[in-house]
Design a protein that fits this description.
The protein is an alpha/beta fold. The protein has an 8-stranded parallel β-barrel with strand order 3-4-7-8-9-10-12-13, surrounded by 4 helices. A 3-stranded antiparallel sheet has the order 5-6-11, with no helix packed on it. Helix 1 runs parallel beside helix 3. The longest helix is centred in the first third of the chain and has 21 residues. It is a single-pass membrane protein. Keywords: Flavoprotein, FMN, Membrane, Mitochondrion, Mitochondrion inner membrane, Oxidoreductase, Transit peptide, Transmembrane, Transmembrane helix.
């Protein structure tokens, strides 16, 4: 079966090559390659979910995925943390855990992506099987448990890619202005890179693991994320408590700020939270974020709850975090609450259940400045990225918005 999938991937690459031979129009080449991917991606569903995941990473690492050369619509351009994003659509952490395919994945046309979660020491994660599809619901349940090759392996890969990525950035953030039509936008394939940090299962002092991650990997990151919300590492979610989170963030910020940074300054620091939090939990997190001037929050990770519409479905009873379409409402409700609690002063990334431009638009209207995909990308493959960007641009134009930032949080006012 692996051979069948790899053969299909190779055929897709040949189709794209044929398009190149037949035309010199780069836009046509991109269109052909994304169209070809629609026929290849269903083959992955014939495989075990984790095996399909591994093959997808290998395909991206070897350039056997479409490459976006078409510029993003100007209405999708935005500047966040002094960094230029050609579009607000990102790939969430968990897909490329060990930074094996950064160039290939960003080349698909994401505005940004996250690698990780990365742990200081390599660890296998939880026993297999640990990933389950709920195809009728567009959902996935996983209990990977921070399987990671470790910080040094990731640092080696990111270090090798770092110079190449910097050269590929066509326009530095300092010279690109939101809405200025006279200045060229960043290329769609020069997206930004986030590094998501985790802790080893056996580590008792969680802070030391996150600090080690900062010291080793922050030099390669456009932004950093503290993941304290995976449901698959025992005790991790306790770090979301007010005192624990405040202590952790203060020490991680200190570790980041003691390093030497150039004109661009240190990478922004974000925290990724769970959707399974009480109103008081959310208020506490908002208070910490505002007090310590956190750069952002990612809302949200997977849920340990099971919405009514998935109960009784095959694999729904499996232990682990649920992602995909059933998570959309829960994560969006938490997003809206957090936008109100932080009074719009903290940049929020909306994650959970996005499978269309309308979904992304609803996240933005609920307070997100940026959004992330995971399960939708796993099910649909590369073709989802240009489709969502096109649909999102149409949503903004339909409602009279001239930029992403004009739409952020409008449903919360």
């Amino acid at each position: 079966m692996q051979q069948r999938v790899l053969t299909g991937t190779a055929i897709g690459a040949l189709i794209a090559t044929g398009a190149y031979v037949g035309t010199s129009d780069e836009a046509t080449i991109s269109a052909w390659s994304f169209e070809a991917s629609k026929y290849i991606n269903p083959l992955f569903r014939l495989l075990d979910p984790e095996e399909a995941h591994k093959i997808a990473i290998k395909a991206a690492a070897h350039g056997l995925v479409p490459r976006e050369t078409r510029p993003d619509p100007p209405i999708l351009h935005l500047n966040v943390w002094g960094r230029a994003f050609s579009n607000p659509i990102g790939l969430a952490a968990g897909f490329d855990k060990d930074a094996q395919a950064v160039e290939g994945l960003l080349g698909i046309g994401f505005g940004f992506m996250e690698v990780g979660s990365v742990t200081p020491l390599s660890q296998e994660g939880n026993p297999k099987p640990r990933v389950f599809r709920l195809p009728d619901h567009g959902a996935i349940i996983n209990r990977y448990g921070f399987n990671s090759e470790g910080i040094m392996a990731v640092a080696k890969r990111l270090g090798a890619q770092h110079g190449k990525r910097r050269l590929a950035e066509s326009v530095p953030a300092s010279s690109w202005v939101q809405g200025d039509q006279n200045k060229p936008a960043p290329r769609a394939s020069s997206g930004l890179l986030g590094v998501n940090l985790g802790k080893n299962k056996s580590t008792e002092d969680a802070t030391s693991d996150y600090v080690q991650g900062v010291h080793t990997l922050s030099q390669y990151a456009d932004y950093l994320v503290i993941n304290v919300s995976s449901p698959n590492t025992p005790g991790l979610r306790k770090l979301q408590g007010r005192k624990q989170l405040k202590d952790l963030v203060k020490k991680v910020l200190a570790a980041r700020d003691e390093m030497q940074w150039g004109e661009k300054g240190p990478p922004p620091l974000l925290v990724k939270i769970a959707p399974d939090l009480s109103k008081q939990d959310l208020a506490d997190i908002a208070a910490v974020a505002l007090t310590l001037r956190l750069d952002g929050l990612i809302i949200s990770n997977t849920t340990v709850s099971r919405p009514d519409d998935v109960i009784g479905a095959p694999h729904a009873e499996e232990i682990g975090g649920l992602s995909g379409k059933p998570l959309f409402k829960l994560s969006t409700d938490v997003l809206r609450d957090m936008y109100q609690l932080t009074r719009g002063k903290i940049t929020l990334i909306g994650c959970g259940g996005i499978s269309s431009g309308e979904d992304a638009y609803r996240k933005i209207r609920s307070g997100a400045t940026l959004v992330q995909l995971y399960s939708g990308f796993a099910y649909e493959g590369p073709a989802i990225v240009p489709r969502i960007k096109e649909e999102l641009a149409a949503c903004l134009e339909r409602d009279g918005f001239k930029s992403i930032k004009e739409a952020v949080g409008v449903d919360c006012q």
